[in-house]
Design a protein that fits this description.
The complex is a heterodimer of chains A (about 110) and B (about 110).
Chain A lengths: L3 E4 L2 E4 L4 E8 L5 E7 L6 E7 L2 E5 L6 E7 L2 E7 L7 E8 L9 E2 L3 E5 L1
Parallel strand pairs in A: 2-11
Antiparallel strand pairs in A: 1-3, 3-8, 4-5, 4-9, 5-6, 7-8, 9-10, 9-11
Chain B lengths: L2 E3 L3 E5 L4 E8 L6 E6 L6 E6 L3 E5 L2 E6 L4 E6 L8 E8 L5 E3 L3 E6 L1
Parallel strand pairs in B: 2-11
Antiparallel strand pairs in B: 1-3, 3-8, 4-5, 4-9, 6-7, 7-8, 9-10, 9-11
The chains are: A mainly beta (about 110), B mainly beta (about 110).
Chain lengths: ~110, ~110
């Protein structure tokens, strides 16, 4: 299984809503990532989890809250988002964040904030 | 600052060869990656270079010159399905991936 899955595929939420994005991989990877990607821009790193611990937070606003319940799952909790947060949110995983050279990406969640 | 440059857009003909260049200026170097991304889809890994030289993988090849801070992705026998964005990314001394803005490749029949 070389797949990273993400749910939901599409999400529309209001600025007062609370929602969560989910990511799952069963490749035994120990590093998982959240990226945000705007149209015609490269992916922008948000968070890195290594061995289920948050290792990198790229100064992301607190309205985004990551969670890694176990080595296969990664969540991104959303609260009080702004319309400019509308983007494609990508989850990725790799064997380890320093030694591995390949990140596997999930299909992404297309988020629209109204 | 850290910077990766690649052309914004390129056009090529089906069956032809195209070379997408990438130049980088980063704090340290621990490998260069090429990813392909179709519109609305996630990036998929194409190649990885950490030593100078050419890495060939089927129709795709990637070249690296660390002294020049330069890489290229070579696509041969172009097919319509190769129409996509091609992202160059460099891993710096802190093992952080620095992404280029991507090159949109348009293939014409």
């Amino acid at each position: 299984d070389t797949e990273v899955t993400q749910t939901p595929k599409h999400l529309v939420m209001g600025m007062t809503n609370k929602k969560s994005l989910k990511c799952e991989q069963h490749m035994g990877h120990r590093a998982m990532y959240w990226y945000k990607q705007k149209a015609k821009k490269p992916p922008e790193l948000m968070f890195v989890y290594s061995y289920e611990k948050l290792s990198i937070n790229e100064s992301v606003p607190s309205r985004f809250s990551p969670e890694c319940p176990n080595s296969s799952l990664l969540n991104l909790h959303l609260h009080a988002l702004q319309p400019e947060d509308s983007a494609l949110y990508l989850c990725a995983s790799s064997q380890e964040d320093y030694n591995s050279y390949e990140q596997y990406f999930g299909p992404g969640t297309r988020l629209t904030v109204t | 600052g850290q910077n990766i440059d690649q052309p914004t857009e390129m056009t090529a003909t089906e069956g032809a060869i195209v070379q997408i260049n990438c130049t980088y200026q980063t704090s340290g170097f621990n490998g260069l990656f090429w990813y392909q991304q179709h519109a609305g889809e996630a990036p998929t890994f194409l190649s990885y270079n950490v030593l100078d030289g050419l890495e060939e993988k089927g129709r795709f090849s990637s070249f690296l010159s660390r002294s020049k801070g330069y890489s290229y992705l070579l696509l041969k026998e172009l097919q319509m399905k190769d129409s996509a964005s091609y992202l160059c990314a460099v891993r710096d001394s802190n093992y952080q991936l620095i992404w280029g803005a991507g090159t949109k490749l348009i293939i014409k029949p």
